[in-house]
Each structure stands twice: as structure tokens, then as C-alpha cells.
Amino acid sequence: MCSPLVEKIVRERIQKEGLPNFSRRNFLKLGGVAAGGLAAASLIPQRKAQAQTAAMGVTDLSHIFATEMPTYTLGETPTREPFVTVEANGFFIQRWTLYEHAGTHVDFPAHFIADGETVDIYPVENLLGPAVVIDIAERAAEDPDTMVMPEDLDAWESANGEIPAGAIVCMYSGWESRWSSIQDFRNPDADGVMHFPGFGPEAAEWLLAERDIYGIAVDTLSLDPGNSTTFDVHVAICSAGKFGIENIANLSSIMNNQASIFVGIPRWQGSGGGPSRIVAFHAADM
Amino acid sequence: MCSPLVEKIVRERIQKEGLPNFSRRNFLKLGGVAAGGLAAASLIPQRKAQAQTAAMGVTDLSHIFATEMPTYTLGETPTREPFVTVEANGFFIQRWTLYEHAGTHVDFPAHFIADGETVDIYPVENLLGPAVVIDIAERAAEDPDTMVMPEDLDAWESANGEIPAGAIVCMYSGWESRWSSIQDFRNPDADGVMHFPGFGPEAAEWLLAERDIYGIAVDTLSLDPGNSTTFDVHVAICSAGKFGIENIANLSSIMNNQASIFVGIPRWQGSGGGPSRIVAFHAADM
Prior knowledge:
By secondary structure, chain A is an alpha/beta fold. Chain A has two domains: 4-54, no CATH class; 105-283, Glucose Oxidase, domain 1 (3-Layer(bba) Sandwich). The first copy, chain A, has helices spanning 4-17, 24-35, 48-54, 86-89, 137-142, 150-160, 182-186, 201-210, 232-239, and strands at 56-60, 79-84, 93-99, 105-107, 128-135, 147-148, 168-172, 198-199, 215-218, 243-246, 260-264, 273-275, 277-283. In chain A, the strands form three sheets. A nine-stranded mixed beta sheet of chain A has the order 1-13-11-5-7-9-10-4-12. Chain A has a two-stranded antiparallel ribbon with strand order 2-3. In chain A, strand 9 (215-218), helix 9 (232-239) and strand 10 (243-246) form a beta-alpha-beta unit. In chain A, helix 6 (150-160) crosses helix 8 and helix 8 runs parallel beside helix 9 (232-239). Chain A is globular, with a radius of gyration of 22 Å.
């Protein structure tokens, strides 16, 4: 919605000057594809929330949850089979067997903390927050072991201002281009140690200590770099009661830091995380 | 976001009179819990989408996806078991076996149409739309076989105006109060025929022919009434390329028709639907 301040300004203007004179055609031109018929409604209090969302664009940040995708641990890919079909039964249902931490998914506190909060009871308000995208793609192309460092966060703030309250801070490493190859995405060496970028522990600790974030996100298989054996970032994030999104997709479409991210995770019972729909909301004309 | 019109009004006012004089404390008071630090940003174009979502409230419309919940067909409840645990392995992952159409979930065209669109390729823009809540709870308390009728849609439009483009039209029957009892929620008679409310075929056909909806939703186990043997509403909705949400929760919190609904469904591969996070976005002070 418009902020209360903006609403006040508009209300005053309308009280003083009356409603602007405009045609429906102008609405359509001004408001983009979906906003047209509802642009007028933004001036009517009872429809303001709907007008606001109608004027938003939605961008998918999720990979398809598929049986042939890369997973952190080999063997944790899901399986699916037809249970009933339209042809034989009149309708179609698949039966899935899945491990929670595969695909575009989220780690919640209980993933690493024995008494940590589970998905089903986690506050829904904390699943929506401004996207902050930290671009380390150039470094990652040279060095797969690179990490998000405090200097990267400094550089972002110098360009964009302080990381806002409730932010979901995303590492964009460009790793997504490897998604279609299990081998390239996991990138193991001869000893089986994986090599892909993640958050460095210093950057994660700084975000938790100095900024009021909701969570973090990476476009790789793990919040920690692939060669981590201590999972410091997982432990720090989960201990702080925050969440971390793994295998986020399509961050290149929200590099301008104008979007908000919503974490659409089903309320998996007693769970430390699971398959999710991650999307970005942004101005329709972004 | 604010409509382009509102932005124009505010821009003109600021150009004429300068930025209003306000303190951060006032922001917090005006903007609600999360909006405080970002209210100012709504005047800065590059942050407008974030300010807008920061000023929105989020309400959960989803039941917990649980092993003891009611399902349309007995035996389609999910199972879960610990795969690794924090105590034994350092982190916690559950393994689930699930049937797609259980819990708060969504039916997409492929659920009833052999070549219908599947979840993984369905347009993400169509997962967000204004909530229209049709209240038939009083009738449902007397008659579990009651249905949403064209007259109910007429009555809603008389009170609220035309059902907007992109709407997600929800049946509120009050059936949710039975969710904790499999027997009461399914409500089978001596012959095993279930009795609970749903959309009537005439109402569904009218919505599809006369209004530009994105989907429908019910707070019961099926889009059709429990005693349906022909599934007319399922067939109509799926044939039209729309979706239907089943077992939606908490509609009583958005009865004022001010909210928008987002369908957070993971991109289940090749699927006609599956477990989802359904939420409502609304003004923070609703």
C-alpha cells in the first residue's frame, strides 16, 4: 500500500482539488497490464491493499522441484510416481517421497538447533522482506571457493544506504547457470570435496550483530561455501532464529535492489525446512 | 506500490512544498510495526516496491501440513520420519511421503485435464489476486450440502461492486472449525457419502463466463460439495485453465474483502497441484 504519509498527501490534494479528471484509457496506460482497472481503487480506502498488490509484478525465484536436480548430499533427490491418472481414474495425483532440504528450499532454526523453531510455527510476517542482492559473480567465476565478505556488505551499503530492517540478504554468485548439471553445480574435487560460493562467517555474524535482517539466501547448495566442514553460517543463522534460503533462482532479475522477497513455504509439520515457492514482488514496470 | 497517479500527485506536492517535516518516531507511529524505517523510502523511486510490501500485513491462510489431518480420500495422509537428527548427525532432515492433494493445497488444470497445465509451468503472475470472500456460513450451519449459488455472487457484488479482474473467489462456510476432527470434517453418512459445502456448478460457470477470475477457494475438502459424484466445478475450473484452493484456513480474518491472496506453491514437477502456503496481504492496520 501507499505509506500513511503518501495517503495523507493524496487525501489532502483530493479534498482541495477534487478527483483528477482521467479516462480509463489513461489508467491502463499509466498502470501497466494488471493495474489498469484498479488504479482508481487506490484512492478508495477499502480497496487500497488490493490495488497495491494488483499493481505489483511477481517474479519467480524458484527452480522446478524435480527428480533430476542437484542436491547437497547425493541420494536426497525426490521421487514421484502417478498414484491415480486422468485416463484410468478421472483425475491425476502423484505420490512423492522427498527429503526436506532439496531444491529451492529454506533452512529454519530446527535444521541445526535441537529445540529450534520449526516451519509450522514460524511467524508468517517474517517471511516477507526487502531483497538486498550482493553481487559476487565476477569473483565466483574465477574462484569457486569465494565467499560473501564484510567488505561486500560495506560496498553495498555505500551504494544503496543501510541494509533495511527485515531484509533478506541474497548472495548472487551466478552459480545458477550450472543448475542443469548435477556435476557442475556440486563441483566436487578428486576427494569429493565440493567447491561453490557461500556466505563467509564474518559477513553472517556482522549481519546478525549489526543489522536487523529476517534471513539470507544463496544461489548455491549451501549457506556456507561448499568446502566448509564446520557450517558456521548455518549455525549462526539458525542460532539467531533466522532462516536461510538455498538454491534461490533468477536473482539477476532483481539486481536493482527494488524488490521484496516472499518465502512461500508450506507449513511442514515439525520441520527444519522444506520445498518452497520463493518469489519477488516489485513495481509492475521494473 | 502506489498507483502511478498517486506517485504523480505526491511528486508534484513535494516539488511544490518540499518534503514534509517528520521524525523517525512519527514514521513508526504512522507505519505500523515493520513499515517504520521504510516509510520515508516510499518517496524515493528506487525503494518504492520495498516500502509498499514493508507496509503490508501478512495473514496465514494455511493449515499445518500434518500427518493426522483430514483428507478427501482416507489413506492419503502424508507420513514423515526423521532421516538425520541434530543429536546423531548435527542437523535435522525429515523424509516425507505425500499425496499431492492433501492439506491446504491447490488443484491446477492437470489435476482433471489430461493435457492440462502443470504447477511447474503455470504463470507465476496469476498466483496473486484480490480476495473476494463469499460468506455462506449461516446456511452451512443448517445444511452441510449447501453450495455457493449465483445469488450469493449477486449479493456480494451489490454490496461491494463488480468482482475485480484477477480475483480469487473464496467460499467461507465456517467448516474450518471441524478441521481437528477427521470424522467431522469429512462428515460421511451411513453410506460413506460425505456432506460438506462447496461451489455450485452454476456459480462456477457464471464466474468463468462473466468475470475474469484467476481462481476459486474453499474451506472444505473439495471445490464441489462433498456429495458430488460428477465433480462439475473441478472440471469447469480446470478446463478453463484456472486453479482451485482446497482447505484454505482463516478466511474469517479477511471477510472485509480488502486483502489479496498469494498462492505459494512449490514448483512440483509435472504436477496437477500440491501442498502450498496460502497467505493474504493487506494493509498493516487492517
